[in-house]
Amino acid sequence: MKELFPDEYDFYPGTWTLPAQLDEFRKHCALQAGMASALRPAEPSTYIVKPSGGCQGAGIYLIRGVEGLLPHTASVSLMWSNPTPSPSP
Q1: Pairing relation of β-strands 46-51 and 75-80?
Q2: Dihedral through CA 6, CA 30, CA 27, CA 53, nearest 10?
Q3: pLDDT tens string 12-66
Q4: Count of domains for the chain
Q5: ω before 41 within 30° of 0 (cis)?
Q6: Residue 59, in any domain of the structure
Q7: Range of the domain at 21
Q8: Do the domain assignments include residue 49?
Q9: What is the C-alpha separation between 49 and 59, in angstroms, rounded?
Q10: What is the rounded distance in angstroms from the CA atom of residue 2 to the CA atom of residue 42?
């Protein structure tokens, strides 16, 4: 749906199925790191890694880049979006 209606589905986080999309995830992390250093040097992106196979929440962990991945066979990585704080009245 995101490909068909990009404006309506812009809320969906970046998602990679690992290890099948590991190269794409590495490229994304490298691009994010480059952007972070040039535009906002403060904090790198956070990713949620969820093991596949019906683990019912067991084994979920957070990483800041590809170097934080644990060596397991299959997982899904989602880019965490920090909500923008509302301005104070």
Answers
A1: antiparallel
A2: -80
A3: 788 888 888 999 999 988 887 777 555 555 577 888 888 877 667 788 889 888 8
A4: 1
A5: no
A6: yes
A7: 12-27+43-74
A8: yes
A9: 8
A10: 30
Q: Is residue 60 part of a domain?
A: yes
Model confidence, pTM:
0.69
- For tokens 């301005």, name the residue: 87
Does residue 64 belong to any structural domain of this protein?
yes
Give 64's DSSP letter.
S
Taking the mean position of all CA atoms in its chain, how far away is CA 20? 15
Strand (E) positions, the chain? 15-18, 46-51, 61-63, 75-80
Q: What is the per-residue DSSP string for 11-34?
A: TSPPEEEETTTHHHHHHHHHHHHH
Residue 48's SS3 state is strand
Please give the structure tokens belonging to residue 22.
């590991």
